[in-house]
Structure prediction request, 143 residues.
Amino acid sequence: MAERSPRVGVGAIVVRDDAILLVQRDRPPYAGEWAIPGGGVQWGETLAVAAEREILEETGVVIRAGEVLYTFELLERDAQGEPLYHYVVLDVAGEYLGGEPDAGDDARAAGWVPFEALGTLPVNATTLHCLQALFPGRFRPER
Prediction:
């Protein structure tokens, strides 16, 4: 059997005024939930180039990617214990340069979500954990 490896993903944490750029995922894993936008790193791409490309494709927003702020691993298994998804994701700082959010690629919706509204949306648990770690006290999720 051929050896398989986790896929590397990159997201960007982009804050403008008192809101964060989020997308509502359209496909599994976590379809319907709001999350930090991003996607897969392609062969030969740096994390910065991948983040800038993915944010543009998924939201229409232009950013300049910065340092890695948060990392996590997603490993979801089927009923037999076989991996369905295995991603290692690095979320980078994203400096907003221009554009207005418009869902593209695999996003159902995209927008600037005010920090105080995060507790009222179905936000992905990993995204909530990330934002609580990076912006302590900025919002209080209701769930």
